[in-house]
UniProtKB/TrEMBL annotation:
The lineage of its organism: Bacteria, Bacillati, Actinomycetota, Actinomycetes, Micromonosporales. This is Peroxidase family protein. InterPro entries: CBD2 (IPR001919), CBM2/CBM3_carb-bd_dom_sf (IPR008965), CBM2_carb-bd_dom_sf (IPR012291), Haem_peroxidase_animal (IPR019791), Haem_peroxidase_sf (IPR010255), Haem_peroxidase_sf_animal (IPR037120). It comes from the Bacteria. GO terms for molecular function: peroxidase activity. It is found in: Secreted. The keyword Cell inner membrane does not apply. Residues 646-758 form the CBM2 domain.
Length: 758
């Protein structure tokens, strides 16, 4: 989106001092269903007693040992769709033309409607780089660029948008439909930390690099606490391959090395790689020295894998509004191989990626020379007494690993606490037009907003590439994909978007730039905001509807590309997604959970690790950050996937939801409700979405009901009146759960109005 970068000083944006003041009284909502990590280590009682998970995904499923393994084809939910039935992509409107009319945000920021932070897309990408990467090919299929398009604002001296097709799996695409190859394992197995080969892992581990794992240390190599560069062992030519682009293209030896080749792609990704490499080393250091280095390494790896799975299913997915049924145990009949539809359509949530990171910390961390160097790169620096705010445009964060140690891991990770962009059809111009490109020299001040085109002379459009990649992989049309996932086909453009018309207003049209103008915007509570302001808006109304612009480029609903239709859908209540995207995520994350023999719910050594060494994997991402950076736990929102309440508009209600006890198959929750509206509640109805198959079994002091994942408690006859400022206590229930995940609810409303968390 080129939702324009906002100035570093935002009205209403809390300063660091405010964050630290409130940190002293932040209280974690509720409690976890299980115990958290114990700091001390217990005496050793023997070596590793559990099966070690392979690096490449092989032998996870014992009956089908290659399922989900590196180098195997993506699975398919629907039949492949090629123009010739074998390999030729279907025709469709020019994807840059579609992008200019549908994905173009005209520099208007719209943020998550469910307060999801930048950890939403960051964790999503970290997982993407854990379980999916198609084998790239060399067959050129460039996207035509039309400089005369009346909606085009960028110049492109190359004349095309570069695109190459992914390679066909062996034996496909000639007499049968073309398939594509996944070059990573199809499991949540911390691939991004450890990689998929012994050679890469040995290079990353402390100790000699001599083709022998027997003399490696238990720890990962982290010089100065950061990922090693390809020069770390003296010969970058012998270092593991890493993708380079943008600023690294001219100096590939400076690339940071991690388990996945894409670790340098952006600063948030590099930081998350670094965080979990530190976490591995922290766990390894907790283990007794009487264990061998290999045993300590494998125990730490087992815990890190389980931590990433636990964070995914108990924090990430609930925050995104993906509510899975309860876990019933490992199912070897489930095919975990990543689906082509998930990898190429459903998991491409590029709309969420924010155009800027804003780090807040102490000014004393940096010298004047460092601050000048930041400014020279295009960073926005504002010093306010002892505090400093550093705004990092996304384009500067691409392939720039030097910037992370310069800013510091802790300060950078705090920047992800701000809201991500709404998961809509709009994509920021940092991605939609100038992805990974190096700006023209001597013009750092134009790296954001309407002036962005002046910084670049080429176009790389991720939204257009998303469309083309779907055609390259033989993706079904939008309606065909809906039907493959059990959803009815849409019969009109307005049925896709939920709007009332697909007709342009007078004096507008599909080729008129005024069709993209925003007429009004609103915040998370529906209150009007100022159009064009950088912060605060979560929804907007344009001169023309998305449905009208879809009709202008596609003509018929049956022609709509799957990716375009998916991102244009109206969201399911309580979710960041429309029906199709949520269905794709639900199916894939169920398979990744239920078909993984090493999923934490299936144990595989985790109970023995906790019993012998006092190390339990049940942890929040906030706790991982606090344990591995100099940011204190009290300064981190307990659920980092949610924007802190202090950074949002004031609410009319506050809810405290706490799990007070658990026992096999059941838990008990206590709820209190505070009226912050200024007027009495004469009747109240509290709603939220349950995750992981949780359900009411018995309740008190309210009227309880459940419709699917939506849980409701209405007042009883004697407690419906709640004066302004008063708090109602004593409401609670017993609920059922799967003994495995038990995620806490994230979206509470009372009488249809958003509530803060107490």
């Amino acid at each position: 989106m080129s939702r324009s970068f906002s100035p570093v000083h935002h009205p209403g944006r809390p300063r660091l001092r405010r964050r630290l003041r409130r940190a002293l009284h932040l209280i974690m909502l509720g409690g976890t269903m299980t115990s958290l990590l114990v700091v001390g280590a217990r005496p050793a009682h023997g070596a590793v007693s559990f099966e070690v998970e392979s690096l490449d995904g092989s032998r996870n499923n014992l009956a089908r040992p290659t399922q989900g393994q590196v180098g195997t084809a993506y699975s398919r939910v629907a039949a492949a769709r090629y123009a010739d039935g074998r390999s030729q992509p279907v025709a469709g409107p020019n994807s840059r033309q579609v992008s200019n009319r549908v994905f173009n945000d005209t520099h208007q920021n719209l943020f998550s409607e469910h307060r999801v932070t930048q950890w939403g897309w960051t964790w999503g990408q970290f997982l993407d780089h854990t379980f999916g990467l198609a084998a790239g090919g060399t067959e050129t299929a460039n996207i035509a660029f039309n400089a005369a398009d009346p909606l085009e604002t960028f110049s492109n001296t190359l004349g095309v948008i570069p695109f190459t097709r992914d390679v066909a799996a062996a034996g496909t695409g000639v007499t049968n439909p073309r398939q594509q190859v996944n070059t990573v394992s199809s499991y949540i197995d911390a691939w991004a930390v450890y990689g998929g080969t012994q050679q890469r892992l040995e290079w990353m581990r402390d100790g000699p690099y001599d083709n022998s794992m027997a003399n490696n240390a238990a720890t990962l190599m982290l010089p100065g606490g950061y990922l090693p560069r390809r020069t770390a062992r003296g010969n970058p030519a012998a270092a593991p391959a890493m993708n380079v682009d943008g600023q690294l293209a001219g100096n590939p030896a400076n690339a940071a090395v991690a388990g996945d080749v894409r670790a340098n792609e952006n600063l948030a990704l590099t930081a998350t790689h670094t965080l979990f490499a530190r976490e591995h080393n922290r766990i390894a250091a907790m283990l007794p020295g009487s264990l061998s280095a290999e045993d300590r390494f494998q125990i730490a790896r087992r815990v890190v894998i389980a931590e990433q799975q636990y964070i995914t299913y108990s924090e990430f997915l609930p925050a995104m509004g993906v509510n899975l049924p309860r876990y019933t145990g490992y199912n070897p009949n489930v095919n975990t191989a990543l689906s082509n539809e998930f990898a190429v359509v459903g998991y491409r949530a590029h709309s969420q990626i924010h155009g800027e990171f804003t780090a807040e910390t102490q000014a004393a961390r940096y010298t004047a020379a460092q601050l000048n160097a930041f400014r020279a790169q295009g960073l926005e620096v504002e010093v306010d007494g002892a505090d400093i705010t550093i705004g990092i445009p996304l384009n500067v964060a691409f392939f720039n690993p030097d910037l992370l140690p310069a800013i510091g891991l802790g300060p950078f990770l705090t920047s992800l606490a701000e809201s991500q962009y709404n998961n809509d059809e709009m994509i920021d111009n940092q991605l939609r037009s100038v992805l990974f490109q190096v700006p023209v020299a001597g013009n750092p001040s134009c790296l954001d907003g309407p002036t962005l085109p002046a910084c670049f002379t080429g176009v790389v459009d991720l939204g257009a590439i998303d469309i083309e990649r779907g055609r390259d992989h033989g993706m079904p049309s939008y309606n065909q994909l809906r039907q493959a996932y059990g959803l009815p086909a849409r019969t009109s453009f307005t049925a896709i978007t939920g709007e009332t018309t697909d007709t342009f207003p007078a004096s507008s049209g599909g080729d008129n730039p005024n069709s993209l103008e925003f007429l009004r915007t609103a915040d998370i509570d529906g209150t009007a905001t100022v159009v064009g302001e950088a912060d605060g808006s979560t929804s907007g109304v344009r001169r023309s509807t998305t449905a009208a612009r879809l009709r202008a480029v596609y003509g018929n609903v049956g022609n709509v590309d799957a990716f375009t239709g998916m991102v244009a859908e109206r969201h399911v209540p309580g979710s960041e997604f429309g029906e199709l995207q949520r269905a794709i995520w639900t199916r894939q994350f169920l398979a990744l959970r239920d078909g993984d023999r090493f999923f934490y719910g299936n144990d595989m050594g985790l109970t023995s690790i906790a019993a012998q060494y006092g190390i339990d994997f049940h942890t929040t991402l906030a706790q991982v950050i606090a344990r591995n950076t100099d940011t204190p736990a009290a300064a981190i929102n307990p659920n980092v996937f949610l924007v802190p309440d202090d950074d949002l508009p004031a609410t009319t209600c506050q809810v405290a939801y706490r799990v007070v006890t658990t026992w096999p198959g059941f838990f008990q929750a206590d709820i209190s409700l505070t009226n912050r509206s200024g007027a009495a509640f004469n009747g109240w109805n509290l709603q939220w979405q349950f995750a992981d198959g949780q359900a009411f079994s018995q309740g008190w002091n309210g009227v309880f009901s459940q419709n699917g994942v939506t849980a409701s408690i209405a007042n009883a006859s004697w407690n419906g009146s709640l004066p302004a400022g008063a708090t109602l206590t004593g409401v609670g229930f017993n609920g059922s759960w799967d003994n495995v995940t038990g995620a806490l609810p994230v979206n509470f409303t009372v009488n249809g109005r958003r509530c803060s968390l107490g």
